[in-house]
Write a structure and sequence with these properties.
Largest sheet: 9 strands, mixed
Shape: globular
Strand order of the largest sheet: 1-14-13-12-2-3-4-6-5
Strand content: 25-35%
Bound molecules: manganese (II) ion
Order of helices and strands: EHEHEHHEEEEEHHHHEEEEEEH
Distance between the termini: 37 Å
Structural class: alpha/beta
Number of helices: 9
Number of domains: 1
Radius of gyration: 18 Å
Length: 269
């Protein structure tokens, strides 16, 4: 099913969506491979979908080392921005010290929207939906008559008080629980994205790569993480979930949201 797109991808890639690099924690070898991937194409739009830097590990008790490989990635981002790439950095829960800022073609924020072939897409890390998912908190999620805003606020307070909960750890328990939690996560995101007038969302946070279109047309994309070397790219054919391997280059996994018929244009006679 996996189809390599070796040799051709560069001019076709319009956007890159990547999350959960956890620099400061991830092994330098992964960081080096990510840097190589980043240099392999001139991405006009780069969406950093959160938890790029692991502030928890850098500041925590088991302080980890900031290695040169991480610097190289930051440098590659900055040089891409200098060459005109638009970088949008969506702040994740492991990055509590980051604040929104607009530096022209580098923007930090909690969420953003973009347009893919005429469809509005929400891009957000996704940690704010944790309370809709945590088994011990489900009673609270069922009370969401008060609206999602209350749960978002509570999630914010809890994480600011240092009550750290890891989606990734939680879904490691068993397959049944994992499926249930991921589907609750998707539903919460869908509801929120729709409330913002979006037809799809690209998120991170779970470390579970996915790209799917529901029967009702809603697109859910999850970048996965760089332990698995996954990312989502936008090409002229739509969105694709890829797994990067420096030997076989980029492998296409799925394509969604191809241009609509009406957007393709009338052939010139
Ligand atoms: Mn996260």
């Amino acid at each position: 099913m996996e189809k390599p797109i070796v040799g051709k991808p560069k001019p076709y890639i319009k956007s890159l969506f990547v999350s959960d690099l956890h620099l400061g924690f991830s092994t330098p070898a992964w960081a080096e491979e990510f840097d190589r991937f980043l240099r392999s194409a001139a991405f006009p739009n780069i969406f950093l979908v959160g938890d790029i830097i692991d502030g928890w590990k850098l500041n925590g008790r088991n302080r980890s080392k900031w290695v040169q490989a991480y610097n190289n990635i930051i440098r590659t981002f900055l040089s891409a921005a200098r060459k005109g790439a638009r970088i949008r950095y969506l702040i994740g829960n492991h990055e509590p010290s980051l604040r929104p800022i607009d530096l022209d073609n580098v923007v930090l924020d909690y969420e953003t929207t973009t347009e893919i072939h005429g469809r509005k897409l929400l891009v957000i890390h996704g940690d704010r939906f944790d309370l809709f998912v945590r088994p011990s908190m489900l009673w609270l999620a069922h009370l969401s008559d008060h609206g999602d805003a209350f749960l978002f606020w509570l999630q914010h307070v809890l994480s600011n008080r240092g009550l750290r909960w890891s989606f990734r750890q939680a879904i490691r328990t068993n397959v049944k629980k994992r499926t249930a939690m991921i589907s609750r996560y998707r539903e919460a995101i869908k509801r929120y994205a729709r409330s913002k007038g979006c037809e799809g969302a690209i998120v991170g946070h779970t470390h579970h790569p996915e790209l799917r279109v529901d029967p009702d047309g809603f697109l859910y994309g999850n970048c996965g993480d760089w332990e698995e070397h996954t990312a989502i790219i936008e090409t002229e054919k739509g969105l694709a979930l890829i797994r990067y391997d420096w030997q076989t280059h980029i492998v296409l996994q799925e394509v969604a949201w191809a241009p609509r018929e009406e957007n393709v244009g009338v052939p010139v006679a």
